[in-house]
Amino acid sequence: MERRTTERLLRARAQAIGGEVREDSVAAVLDRVLAVQAQDLPAAELGLRARARGLTQEAVRRATDIERTAVRGWFMRGTLQLVPAADARWLLGLFGPVYLALAVRRLRELGLDEALCARSERLIADAIAAEGPLTRARLTDRLTTLGVEPKGQSAFHLIRRAALAGVICHGPQRDGEATFVLLDDWLPDTGPVPYTGEAAVRELARRYRSAHGPCDALDFVHWSGLKTTAGKNAWAAVRDIAPDAPPVRGEPDVRLLPAYDNYLVGYRSRDLSVPAEHERRVWPGGGQIRATVVVDGLAIGTWSGGRRGTPVKVEPFPGTEPLSPAVAAGIARESADIARFSS
């Protein structure tokens, strides 16, 4: 039990959600963890908040929309992630071809042949070049001129295809909606990407180890979505990263993690982060992963609210011991910080 507790504390510290670790900026958080799950952008912003000190939503939007130091795209597992802009091109070079190949069957099922895909890519690029950042809805309107159905998933898959091909990427938000921009305009090409092929997989393994350790090769395969053989080979080629000295237990470190947080999806097994008997309360099905209250890296309940001024509501797991005064105080601090972040 002591070994598992130490492992969990080390993981929480590596992910900047424990050990009193908090970074000072969006760039510092992403430099530490490489990626923040971002299919739900407000949740991703709260994931950055949980790992930082005094971060504001405005600072997050400035990093993504103005400074362009963080960019959102389809990378690990083919899901949307926020990553450092400096890493976007080599990550796209690694994952783009993988998920373009996997998307071929779905495009065919939707009746989108290669010729239509190519025309759609040109239309998307031309529309953005002429009009600037465009939302998915605006791009869908343009795609209907090629006979693409305005409803359903066809337009989405064509837009995603253009992003995986390196033609477009996510740009600034407009009235709360994501827009797409030309990748080369938004993140100008500054020369050869630093990692390609096997070197890119090894670098990804190194970054994962640093941000998630203690962990193993199968954790890396699960998190990255790469084939098992490629993941294991890269893992074996990367030197072990010595963990910090065993953490000293002090006051409980309480964090309110958002839905879909990295800490909950970054390992093949959930048993260190969530007690098995309460797993369904965090993963209720249908692809949902609920927001959690974690204390020193261990989930003790779920929470909701906190957006648009609504109060945070915490639901401890049933049958657990009453919250200690220190944990209750930590929840109160986190709840107040969410309100400050969103104001």
Walk me through the structure.
The chain is 48% helix and 12% strand. With 343 residues, the chain is α+β, with helices and mostly antiparallel strands. A four-stranded antiparallel β-sheet has the order 7-8-9-10. Helix 5 crosses helix 8 and helix 10 (197-212) packs across helix 12. The protein is globular and about 60 Å long. The relative contact order is 0.13. The mean pLDDT is 94.
Order of strands side by side in the largest beta sheet?
7-8-9-10
First-to-last CA distance? 41 Å
Q: What value does the Rg take, in angstroms?
A: 21 Å
The residue-averaged pLDDT reads: 94
Which word captures the global form? Answer: globular
What share of the residues lie within helices? 40-55%
Note poorly predicted spans: none
- The strand count comes to 10
Give me the secondary-structure category: alpha+beta
Beta strand % = 5-15%
Order of helices and strands: HHEHHEEHHEHHEEHHHHEHHEEEH
Total helical elements: 15
Summarize the structure.
The protein has helices at 2-14, 26-33, 41-50, 57-65, 85-109, 114-131, 136-143, 154-164, 183-186, 197-212, 217-224, 228-237, 262-265, 279-282, 325-342; strands spanning 36-37, 70-74, 80-84, 134-135, 168-170, 179-182, 254-257, 292-295, 298-304, 313-316.
Note the topology:
Elements: H1 2-14, H2 26-33, E1 36-37, H3 41-50, H4 57-65, E2 70-74, E3 80-84, H5 85-109, H6 114-131, E4 134-135, H7 136-143, H8 154-164, E5 168-170, E6 179-182, H9 183-186, H10 197-212, H11 217-224, H12 228-237, E7 254-257, H13 262-265, H14 279-282, E8 292-295, E9 298-304, E10 313-316, H15 325-342
